[in-house]
Design a protein that fits this description.
Blueprint: E1 3-11, H1 14-30, E2 34-38, E3 53-59, H2 62-70, H3 72-81, E4 85-93
Antiparallel strand pairs: 1-3, 1-4, 2-3
Protein name: DUF1330 domain-containing protein
Organism: Azospirillum doebereinerae
Domain DUF1330: 2-95
Amino acid sequence: MPAYVIADIKVTDTVAYESYKALSPNAVAVNGGRFLSRGGETAVMEGNWQPNRVVILEFPDMAAARAFYDSPEYRAARAARAGAADFNMIIVDGL
């Protein structure tokens, strides 16, 4: 079953964050993933959540999503974004 990576990102350094944005698509692709959302408009329907930049990725399964996060490609992307953004990220099983 598919798995989804959901990230809420507060960009603190837009210039440095561009390096992360350049590296992350390859990390997603080599692990069988695809972008479903990449920071588009959000609308809070209930609660107090104030999302910043929401990114949603789809992977074939939970193992592939974890492999993405642990991959050398994504480690390089994470290193590039150090100090450029505050991240909250989860992986959730799909149906």
